[in-house]
Amino acid sequence: MTTRRLALFDLDHTLLPLDSDYQWADYLARTGRAGDPVEARRLNDDLMERYNRGELTAEQAAEFMLGLLAAHAPHDLAVWHETFMGEVIRPSITPAARDLVDGHLEAGDLCAIVTATNSFVTAPIARAFGVPHLVATDAEYLRGRYTGRILGTPSFKEGKVVRVNDWLGSMGLGLADFSESFFYSDSVNDVPLLEKVTRPIAANPSPALRAIAQERGWQVIDLFDHMEDSKS
């Protein structure tokens, strides 16, 4: 075991006070780039409700979310995503979330964002936080277009454990090689990975995760408590 520490961060509702996957689909819908706007928003809302209940599979999410990528040329997607970053994501990055990430980076910890949201949406967000590594659901890309299918193991529920182990293994490392390993998450879907680290931290947790954290004695932090105060 080394003295180096590992810090893993879920993204949506953990570092961001929103769901980037949901917001990206909503952005495409309201700008007329997701087919019928009313139907696209209905599907988006349904997926979010099922995710929050822990009833959504990665494949079910991919059918809609990755289908939005497959419907457009990568150049157009890139242009739209930069506008999305400016309008939706960057204004939502809070000082508290930046401070949390910066504290681990400045300590020399190995840091990664580990998210179920696909890497097209989240890679620019990881860069905005200054996090050098991203473990995300990968969208298949063939002959210059997204196919609408998942590539490999989705970074979701138990799949996050698989993907983190694969990522660490690519560097000749494992979770046991770190003196401490942190994982910050808001979601009950992330319990499998929270159980694998030495420092599981429920960040802005859902009611279900908050109950589990309290039962197991996991640390609970709330990064967005003062957001309404700062807006008033």
Description:
The protein is globular, with a radius of gyration of 17 Å. Helix content is about 45%, strand content about 20%. Helix 1 runs antiparallel to helix 2 (about 35-50) and helix 1 (about 20-30) packs across helix 4. A 7-stranded mixed β-sheet has the order 4-3-2-1-5-6-7, sandwiched between helices. Residues about 230 have low confidence and may be disordered. It has 10 helices and 7 strands. The protein has helices at about 20-30, 35-50, 60-70, 75-90, 95-105, 120-130, 160-170, 190-195, 205-215, 225-230, and strands at about 5-10, 110-120, 135-140, 145-150, 180-185, 200-205, 220. By secondary structure, the chain is an alpha/beta fold.
Defining traits:
single chain; 232 residues; alpha/beta; seven-stranded mixed sheet; 10 helices; disordered C terminus; HAD-like_SerB; metal-binding; Phosphoserine phosphatase SerB1; EC 3.1.3.3; HAD-like_sf
